[in-house]
Every structure is written in C-alpha cells, then in structure tokens.
Amino acid sequence: MGQSVEGQPLLDRTGEDESALADLYTQHGPFAYGLAVGIVRDGTAAEEIVCAAFLETWVGGTDSRTTARDVRSRLLAVVHRRAAEFVRSSYPRPEHKFPQPGLLPDWLALERETAWGMLCQLPDTERQVLELAYFGCYTLTEIATRLALPVGTVGGHLRAGLDRLAEQQREVVSPR
Questions:
Q1: What proportions of the chain, in percent to the nearest 5, are helix, strand and coil?
Q2: Which pTM does this prediction carry?
C-alpha cells in the first residue's frame, strides 16, 4: 500500500493534497511512462499522456476497498487507453516492436529488457496477440483477422498471456 501520512493510507488521501499525488507519481510514474513511451514512441507525448492519466485517476478517487494494485491497474489502463487513442489519431499504425534502447533512460532500458524477457517466455500466439494489442494498438477483431483466428480465441490468448505475465511478475517481485 502507499505511504501513509498521519496514519491515513495514501489511497484514502486521493483528492486531498498534492503530496499524496506526488507519492502516487513516485510509486507508479516510471511504469506509466514506460508503457506510454513503448506505445507512442515519443517522450514528450508520453509525458503528456502520463500526466493526463494521473489527473484522471486522481480525480476519479478511490473507495475504502481500493488496494494499491487496483490504483496501479486503473492508472496503467488509463495510460494505455490514452496512448492508443493518441496513436490512432496521430500516426499511421506503427509496426509492433519494443522501442529501441536509445529512446529510453537507462533505468527504463533495464525494465524493458525484463519485460521483453517475460514476453519471450510466452507461447508464440499469446506473445503475438499481446504485441499486436498493446504495442500495435490493434483491436481484438483486427488481431483475429490478421492472425486468421476466431475473435474469441484471440481474447482467450490475450487473457492467458496477461495471466502468465502477471505470474512471472509476481515471481520477479517476490521470488519463492
């Protein structure tokens, strides 16, 4: 859970003070920026997307059942949606691949390598679906057409791939 101030958890402080927003940004800003720059491939646009996503998440607030994982998930979902909208409205579709290391700060390049290693461990179809969805900004229908698979199967591969990545991330964060 987030930092506490006067015994109040960070997640209960949303909407109250700027220091809580700064704490939230310190915790999740690097991940949000990494996701945004990975999609839009433009540092300035990624910064704007992340700022807008933090504001949207902050204004949305939380309730007493909200956990740190919920806030992070909500924030990254907003970043992804805003980045995808930016790509769709501004540029022709990019080829799906990770950004080149020179575009990323050193600390983010290490996370990029970790993420790439996790993606490479997925079965090929799950990896392709995830890359097309998150880095190519394709819809499930477009991915299904591109891979000649039923839409339901594509959705299943997407869910299975996300579940595998979540499990891999848990193993990295708290090795057994």
A1: 75, 0, 25
A2: 0.48
